[in-house]
Amino acid sequence: MANRRDKEVAEQYSSQPVPKTSSWILQKWRRPTSRSSTSTSETQNDNEKSNQGHSVHRWAIPDDESVNWAKNVVEFYNNGDSPFCYSAVFNTPTQLDKRFWGTLLGDRSHGYLTETHIQGWVGRMMNWRRRQLQEDKSLALPWTLLPPQFYTHLLESSVKHVVNYANGKLNPFPSFFEVDFVYFPFCLANNKWLHLRVDLRSQELLMYCIEPFDGEYYRRAVHPIITKIKVYFTGLLVHIQYWKKSGRTERCMTFEINEDFVRSFRDLVGNEGVYVCMLMEHLVTGKPINPTGDFNEALASYRHFMAENLYFWRCLPRP
């Protein structure tokens, strides 16, 4: 069955680009470490189901025909057939319980999404990207979208984990050598989400703000983190010999702030995580953030859109 939404998204897509590294960085990254660690249309689901064999992870067993499963996410949350379930958008068999689904639907925890919710949405977007390229290898999708855990591993200098995101060995994330833009969200504290983009061509780090903050908060909480990200991300590029292998010119990383998507605190109370997911999809596909002009309605619809898409990929873990 044709997928009208995915075709529209593909047509709307346009990429949005908006002294040498210190030697100690290379040594730091070579040194071993012990630290590691609403609603979607039926046509979209039918199209995704037709490609399911290409996108379900090895740990997952698809079982769409199980008569014992709830037919949709709302039914599962209200009258679930089990205490938890699994979704193939995750890289590992993550148990998704009623609290997970209730929070995503806005019925629990005041709607504040966790890193697990964001991780699942990143997985869904990356699987979407892979399906598009499987159908048409000529598509220009020069980006990768990394989960919040990337930020955590990066700042912990967990070399093994971050390198796997960069060298293409961690499914479904492509190698940095295959893309121009690296996006990743992270949470500062108290549900304050930010979204970052690294332009690998110009070595520009761009921070997308979703809510306003004053200069004092930036100096105290944001600037120190951004400084670390610049150093450690550059260290990652040194570790994978990015400039040598890509042939691109090595540059010092610059930093810019984008405030085009800032919303008021009142608009975003309980919805910070949802909004950053909306922004993720908008930046890489061009999908409108607020198509109806009613922002609150758009947030509520997107919650259900997210929940239905994550539940659609319900599966069973292999024994």
Mean pLDDT figure: 83
Low-confidence stretches: 1-56
CATH class: Alpha Beta
Please give the number of β-strands. 9
Total domain modules: 1
Cα end-to-end separation = 33 Å
The CATH H-level homologous superfamily:
Adenoviral Proteinase, Chain A
Determine the oligomeric state from the structure: single chain
- Strand order in the largest sheet: 4-5-6-7-8
Report the total helices.
14
For the largest beta-sheet, the strand count, sense and barrel status come to: 5 strands, mixed
Instruction: List the secondary-structure elements in sequence, H or E.
Output: HHHHEHEEHHEHHEEEHHEHHHE
CATH topology grouping: Adenoviral Proteinase, Chain
Radius of gyration from the alpha-carbon trace, in angstroms: 20 Å
CATH architecture: 3-Layer(aba) Sandwich
Structure classification? alpha+beta
Topology:
Blueprint: H1 4-12, H2 23-30, H3 42-50, H4 52-55, E1 60-62, H5 73-79, E2 84-87, E3 96-97, H6 98-104, H7 115-135, E4 143-145, H8 148-155, H9 159-166, E5 181-187, E6 193-199, E7 204-208, H10 215-239, H11 242-246, E8 254-258, H12 265-268, H13 272-285, H14 295-312, E9 314-317
Parallel strand pairs: 4-5, 7-8
Antiparallel strand pairs: 1-9, 2-3, 2-9, 5-6, 6-7
Description of the molecule:
This protein has 319 residues and is of the alpha+beta class. It has one domain (4-18, 20-37, 42-317): Adenoviral Proteinase, Chain. It contains 14 helices and 9 strands. The chain has helices at 4-12, 23-30, 42-50, 52-55, 73-79, 98-104, 115-135, 148-155, 159-166, 215-239, 242-246, 265-268, 272-285, 295-312; strands at 60-62, 84-87, 96-97, 143-145, 181-187, 193-199, 204-208, 254-258, 314-317. The strands form 2 sheets. A 5-stranded mixed beta sheet has the order 4-5-6-7-8, sandwiched between helices. Strand 5 (181-187) and strand 6 (193-199) form a beta hairpin. Helix 2 packs across helix 10. The model is unreliable at 1-56 (pLDDT under 50).
